[in-house]
Amino acid sequence: MIITLQGGLKVDAEYKSFTIKTDQPKHQDGKASAPAPFDLFLASIGTCAGIYIVFFCKERKIPYENIRMVMRTERNIDPKTIDRFILDIQLPTDFPDNYRNALIRAVNLCSVKKTIEAKPKFVITTLKP
User: Fold this and answer.
1) What domains does the chain contain, in order, with CATH numbers?
2) What is the rounded distance in angstroms from the CA atom of residue 53 to the CA atom of residue 99?
3) pLDDT tens for residues 8-48?
C-alpha cells in the first residue's frame, strides 16, 4: 500500500487496483470531499461483519437481502478512543431462529475484528532516498 499526501488534508492510499481517498471534515479544516480515515476504519469493521453474514447465509441458502446491521460505539473521553463496538444484527421475521446464535458466531470470525482484538504492534520508520 502506498500512501500519498494530496494537499490540504487529503491523503490517498493506493492498494491493489484501488485508490482510497480520505479527507477531514470541514470543522477540522478539511474539505469533507471523502470519508475521514477513522470513518473508513469504522466502516471496515461493519462491512467485514456484513460479509460474514452474507457468507453464513449463502452457505445455508438463507435470503440475506433484508438483513441489516447497525453498528454503534461507546467512546472514552480520555483518552479519546472507542471502548466498545456494538453490532446489532436486525433479522427479518422469517429468519430461522435456530441459526441466530450461529450467525453471531460467524460474525465473530470477522478478520478485521480479530485483528483489532490481537492488538498488533506498529513499526514506524523514516526512509530517505
Assistant:
1) 1-35 (no CATH), 38-129 (3.30.300.20)
2) 11
3) 999 999 999 999 999 999 999 999 999 999 999 999 999 99
